[in-house]
Amino acid sequence: MKTAIVTDSxxxxxxxxxxxxxxxxxxxxxxxGNEVYQEEIDITWPQFYEEVRxxxxxxxxxxxxxxxxxxxxxxxxxxxxxxxxxxxSGISGTFQGAVSASxxxxxxxxxxxxxxxxxxxxxxxxxxxxxxxSRGEGAEAIIARLEELKKSARAYFMVDDLSHLQRGGRLxxxxxxxxxxxxxxxxxxxxxxxxxxxxxxxxxxxAMKRIADLLGEDVSGGEEYxxxxxxxxxxxxxxVWRQELSLLYPNVEFVIGYFGAVxxxxxxxxxxxxxxxxx
Length: 279
What we know:
The protein is 41% helix and 25% strand. By secondary structure, the protein is an alpha/beta fold. The chain has two domains: 3-28 and 63-150, Rossmann fold (3-Layer(aba) Sandwich); 154-278, Hypothetical Protein Tm841, Chain: A,domain 3. The strands form three sheets. It has a six-stranded mixed beta sheet with strand order 10-9-8-13-11-12, with helices on both faces. A four-stranded parallel beta sheet has the order 2-1-6-7, with helices on both faces. Strand 9 (187-191) and strand 10 (194-199) form a beta hairpin. GO terms for molecular function: lipid binding. This is Fatty acid-binding protein DegV.
């Protein structure tokens, strides 16, 4: 059985890794006024953070269903099945778009997978699925593997300015108001597929230490983990943090990821986070 792997652009998997593992990508859109950009195709993350400094905050949109249908039909010529891995259905309709498109395509079985998360943690699922597919594993075995990984998947992040999340409807107005009033750096995480506050912390430094401690709790058993440090235009800070954490947790393989255009629209520049799962 030949299985294709699809994900969306918010997994933020570097192009060379997508090409290495033959991972197909459906882009979400970021919209500045009348200009629509497909993220990771028309606009890179550095370009995005440059643009938002001189323009009004953009809006975002999920891929049209037709884009899914077109890709699935193309893949049906060479594959028996597709596993389509997407950002949390609680913050975007992208997963549902894949589900709807799957019912409109003949000749290929589509398995839509809700990662219930986003960014490179979502990317970890896609890479793992692609590795399994390259060995000829069947789609149902791959889905079972992804569900197993989900048990250990975590992500925590903090934002510099809660107004982006409030404006985009991803966090309640009351939480944003309280955060800005007290100058707290709330830790946020995904719970039941949506973004909710985890803890209120007063400074950026303490917030990052708390995230590191949460990782430490999960990896204390000595099992091997993979982790990603995710930044919103804070690449140097992320690299320093990666070096510090690599010394603290030798059983964790760290990579650096980023909040790209779509997720960056809702979090704002300066956001920092980390996600991980068992290998």
